[in-house]
Design brief:
single chain; 390 residues; alpha/beta; Uracil-DNA Glycosylase, subunit E
């Protein structure tokens, strides 16, 4: 491992108190024409028992070179395989058929989250983990000064703007770019004194990752780094580029949903296909970043007038969606069981004379109501809400 890395930055890096693991810095990184810092998300550890996990957790956390050993063992020496690293190679070079050590000797890599994740529990970093890690990131880039930074995963971008404000760093707010599969590419810029760094966020490469489409994106967004890396690791005689592979699971069946409006879809469906009514102005149903507050989540029904997306499109904060379903169910119960008691909403019948109107509307839409609530009932039987949202 030693012959592949540059330790000249270690003294400065070791002074960063919250930097659990020293970043991998290739031996040729500092002399490179383009200094690429690849930012992973987090380290994971698996164990058969709690005792074994505690032991591995302690060993990994106390080993400052844990990240470096990971890079050397997996993507360089292939002692164990990882989809994440295999797809990192592909997304930059379209292949795994090259001298891997040359690639890693010319780049830097570090994981953004400074604590180990428990793979047994499918643990994921929380928002506060990402938010708190920006301070360490700023301190790292001040030392190693990359020219390009590509994040493998977009989750860190969700706390970026707020963190930069808190740290008083001059920055360009996160810009949402094109949607590829189920993820939107994102970009930003940081300025510190006379140092400027462009940040690019792409989908995490662990699974369900269309490397060919993300490679095409990086060729547009970070062409110089792509060309530089290709020049240092390959030549026409030794490298055979793989055919582009687009995994079918990654292809979205939702064509035409607007991604340039203030509401940013995360999960969505084609509402006209669900209703079977192409003439209806309601086109897509989405849950994502709220148009009124990017940091908030909302459910939105996109409506189109025929000429443009309607301002009458409905958007509801996610904490109210269940309450809206609840008031409908409570109303159905009241209409068909007049003597029933109120729910936790303490709903009241305000106009008895209009109950017939509500009943007629419910009857007119009963098939759709039955379909959606039957599916909700099915999902509630599959999901332990008390456990999942404890």
């Amino acid at each position: 491992m030693e012959k592949h890395i540059d330790k000249s930055f270690d003294k400065q890096l070791e002074a960063i108190t919250k930097l659990t693991w020293l970043p991998w810095i290739g031996k040729s990184y500092n002399e490179a024409n383009r200094k690429l810092l690849i930012v992973g998300e987090s380290h994971y550890q698996f164990a058969e028992s709690d005792e074994e996990y505690e032991k591995k957790f302690k060993e990994a956390t106390e080993d400052k070179e844990f990240t470096r050993k990971t890079i050397y063992e997996s993507p360089i020496c292939c002692e164990w395989t990882s989809n994440t690293f295999e797809n990192i190679h592909r997304v930059f070079l379209e292949t795994n058929n090259f001298r891997r050590e040359l690639f890693w000797e010319h780049v830097a890599f570090y994981n953004f989250i400074p604590r180990l994740m428990d793979y047994r529990k499918k643990e994921r970093p929380m928002w506060v983990d990402f938010y708190n890690s920006w301070d360490t990131f700023i301190k790292v880039i001040k030392v190693i000064k990359p020219t390009d930074c590509v994040f493998i995963g977009v989750s860190a971008s969700n706390s970026f703007n707020q963190a930069m404000e808190e740290l008083r760093i001059k920055y360009t707010p996160i810009k949402w770019l094109e949607g590829i599969g189920t993820v939107y590419a994102r970009s930003s810029k940081i300025e510190i004194d006379d140092y400027e760094l462009n940040l690019t966020f792409i989908q995490h490469s662990s699974k369900m990752f269309s490397w060919s489409r993300w490679n095409a994106f990086l060729k547009k967004q970070n062409r110089e780094i792509i060309e530089y890396l290709r020049s240092v690791v390959s030549d026409d005689k030794t490298v055979k580029y793989e055919n582009p592979i687009i995994e079918p699971q990654q292809e979205s069946l939702i064509k035409g949903i607007p991604t340039y409006l203030s509401h940013k879809p995360v999960i969505a469906c084609n509402y006209t296909e669900y209703t079977g009514n192409d003439s209806n102005d309601a086109k897509y149903l989405s849950i994502g970043h709220a148009q009124y507050d990017y940091k908030g989540a909302s459910v939105k029904l996109f409506r189109h007038t025929g000429q443009r997306w309607s301002r009458q499109s409905e958007e509801v904060p996610i904490n109210r969606v269940g309450d809206m379903a609840l008031i409908l169910l409570a109303s159905i119960k009241r209409i068909y069981s007049p003597d029933s008691t109120s729910t936790i909403l303490n709903e009241e019948v305000l106009k008895v004379d209009d109950l017939d109107f509500l009943q007629s509307e419910i009857e007119a839409n009963k098939e759709r109501i039955k379909t959606s609530f039957s599916e909700i009932k099915k999902l509630l039987n599959e999901i332990d809400i008390e456990k999942e949202l404890q």
